[in-house]
Design goal:
By secondary structure, this protein is an alpha+beta fold. Helix content is 40%, strand content 28%.
Length: 323
């Protein structure tokens, strides 16, 4: 149950980032920090927080969803306990993991270790211990199912805070940047995938989709992929996105291409109830060659307003008890 809850939370984060979009193009993009991420990583999601906070869609989505959803309540609880203002103090966030479990989040920005530690010390259940050269902080947070889980945190450098539910994963990630071969700086495939995302302000990179999809019914398609990249960029007041996948074989690539084409048709058929999806379907281009499948799509400002409203309604619906 806990593993499923964590996976669903990760999906919620991705959905939220997808709709908090349209960022201003004059904010400098931060590249995926492969030199900081631990060896053994199978997937990476990287976002420039400053760019999507600067967008009009961020404020609209938060206003439409309200502060009552579990995700936003957890965010506000963390801000209250740590004295960190996510939207003002954090410039970028990178989340990575070896598979479906043990993800670690890298927060970069105007983060002061002494101020954060002092704020967290007042939280019930707070603990602090040395793990080698690292100062590991830990405190309980309420999960969506009403239970409690512990969050572990560690400063790995000036302005770089690591968060995760597995203490040893956090410690391993903290030392990755200092170890030759302990990070992804020389990882050939991840370097190639990061090169595809270019100046994207939100990117997702997957190596060996079967590891990421393990136990995750919503991501069954990943089992058929060797690598996947997703990149989102601001485009004429809206958003342009692309997905590039390499399947395990040509049959899997054909299946993936057919499913994406069917998705495009489904979006078009929902024009009456969700006109934003119809607008998205009109711009979708699905293509394939050999084992490689590509998708391109764009949303203008009008379509983004419709999609933002639809996403906010879906988040509210999933936040209701029993959903």
């Amino acid at each position: 149950m806990q593993a499923k809850s964590r996976r669903n939370a990760a999906i919620g984060v991705l959905v939220g980032i997808w709709v908090w979009c349209g960022a201003h193009a004059n904010v400098v993009a931060a590249p995926v920090p492969l030199h900081e991420l631990p060896a053994g990583t199978s997937w990476i999601v990287h976002a420039d927080v400053a760019r999507w906070v600067a967008s009009p869609w961020y404020a609209r989505f938060v206003a439409a969803v309200g502060e009552s959803t579990p995700a936003l309540r957890s965010l506000r609880a963390f801000e209250a306990a740590s004295s960190v203002n996510i939207t003002a103090d954090v410039r970028s966030v990178t989340i990575c993991g070896p598979g479906g479990e043990d993800a670690v989040a890298f927060l970069r920005g105007n983060l002061n270790a002494a101020r954060l530690t002092a704020g967290l010390k007042t939280a019930p259940g707070f603990s602090q211990q040395r793990q080698g050269k690292w100062n590991l902080l830990s405190w309980p947070m309420r999960s969506r199912d009403g239970g409690s889980r512990r969050v572990h945190a560690c400063f790995a450098g000036p302005g770089l805070l690591l968060l995760g539910e597995n203490a040893q994963s956090v410690i391993k990630a903290a030392g990755a940047g200092e170890q030759a071969g302990g990070n992804l700086a020389a990882h050939r495939v991840f370097k190639e995938l990061a090169g595809r995302t270019g100046d994207a302000w939100l990117s997702a990179l997957v190596v060996d989709g079967s590891k990421v999809a393990s136990g995750l019914a919503e991501a069954d398609l990943l089992r058929q992929c060797e690598t996947v990249t997703v990149a989102l960029r601001p485009d004429r007041g809206g958003l342009a996105g692309q997905m590039d996948a390499v399947a395990i074989n040509e049959d899997a690539a054909a299946t993936l291409q057919q499913l994406l084409a069917a998705m495009q048709v489904m979006f078009s058929m929902r024009a009456a109830s969700e006109p934003g999806l119809a607008a998205l379907a009109e711009t979708m281009q699905v293509s394939g060659e050999g084992r490689r499948v590509k998708v391109r799509a764009a949303c203008d400002a009008d379509a983004m307003r419709l999609l933002t409203g639809a996403a906010a309604r879906e988040v509210k619906r999933k936040s209701r008890p029993g959903s």
